[in-house]
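Handout for the seminar on molecular recognition.
Each group receives one record of this type.
Step one: identify the two inputs.
Step two: read the structure output and locate the region that could contact S-adenosylmethionine.
Step three: write two sentences on what you found, then compare them with the reference statements printed after the record.
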Amino acid sequence: MTEANYRRPRKRFGQNFLIDNAIIDGIIAAINPGDEDDIVEIGPGEGALTKRLINRCHRLWGIEIDRDLAALLRDRYSGHERFNLICQDVLEVEFSQFQTAGMLRIAGNLPYNISTPLLFKLLTSKARISDMHFMLQKEVVDRLVAKAGEKPYGRLSVMVQYHCTVESLMTVPPAAFRPQPKVHSAVARLQPYNRPPFLAEDYAMFENLVNAAFQQRRKTLRNSLKRLLPAGAANLDFDLAARPEELSVEQFVDLANQMSSAYGRL
Ligand code: SAM
């Protein structure tokens, strides 16, 4: 197969390759990889980030679903002992397979179609992850960093901010990619807490509460939570006339903790 064949971007895999060196440098500077770092890169593609990471880490795993690109990367980096390529759907990858002495760092210019399920999957491995740097659609990054009362604030903001500090580092225009996406992108840094600052006593209750609340974001909490509050909400010291988008992460945790004390665990 020729290089030209390898490199025809596949829309179904969300392939928008980074071609702007200043942006690539900016992402690498933000990651600031070091000799001790064990890094997992999601969707290395043609290697725009890989080639800058590979000499600045202890180990680098690339997870690439596209077999042609995986073959290209294996060919190109076969001489690098520290590099391993896993040709698999990242949503099916078992992160416990990465044997490391310390924590993992995760990075990638993510395929946009899987970004939300991927973030939720990574949160389940957060105890092993020191940080994550991702290029995402700007609209997704806006949701990740949004605070209560802001328009993009929703389930994703609450669930990710429960587990991590989140920063938006830079906005990236469509011209930085080939082919150009229709929308702007942005780079986010997520750093999981060792221990969340506001701790849900029953995590399943917290998750269900946040899901139920944002399924009907225009409704008051009292209305959306009828299913979760079988006996009514009489025992709760909480303003249930509020709408979900007005509640901070701390308030969601407080409400979930009151619900589990009043009604037991789920
Ligand atoms: N890192 C490269 C860059 O910045 O130019 C490519 C980024 S491109 C937006 C996304 C990459 O993720 C593609 O190489 C694509 O084939 C790969 N990909 C898409 N879906 C994937 C999945 N489910 N698991 C692993 N890789 C995936």
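Reference statements: The beta strands are 17-18, 38-42, 59-63, 83-86, 104-109, 129-137, 164-172, 177-178, 185-192. The CA atoms of residues 144 and 156 lie 6 Å apart.
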